[in-house]
Amino acid sequence: MTGGTDSLVTLMTILGHRFTDETHLKAALTHSSLTKGRGRRRAADDYDRLEFLGDRVLGLTISEELFRRFPDAEAGQLSRRYNAQVRRETLAEIAEDIGLAAHIRMADDLAASGGRENPAILEDVMEAVIAALYLDGGFKAAKKFIKSQWWPRFDRKDASRKDAKSALQEWLAKAGKAPPIYEITAESGPDHDRRFVVSVSVDGFTPADGKGSSKREAEQKAAAKMLKEVKGE
Question: What confidence tier does 220 reach under pLDDT thresholds 50, 70, 90?
């Protein structure tokens, strides 16, 4: 477990917002391993509810900016750019860039097993922190932070690249083949550190497997492998 007044002050400096009420920020940094199984539990004690709200605040902010920034882009192009900005890998990368892991409060055993480096946890905390900014300072505070971290990424070369699942689906459609079929073949680990193995099948090819901390991540990795196979790369 980590945290403390000094830690919060440091984080608020990074976020560019001085909280008038630190309650939501503290909750945003608290993993459920510290709140579950300890008798009566209040939903506001950890980030579970906050990450739900933060996801929507981030999504609206990114959507609005993409719509404004790329007036000639088609809906499909905007969707690809949007997906690149809100996917787990992006949120986890930003969380790492600002040193968010050091401020996350979690059970000692989870921290010892690499919990603060878990992309799924970093994603959730990042969304929860955005929600905390929104609840304390409104859209102005949330957008100020999002702008500082996300805006520089909009013009990267891979910002409009299709994700592996979409690319595989489109390639198969153009080739006149049936859509791929995804199946979870293995699932393991505790609730806070789940691991998935997904197999993707395409007619005429050997199934490809992908592993990840979420079904989506495992599917994307499996699709990436299959895409290389069908293209003969």
Answer: confident
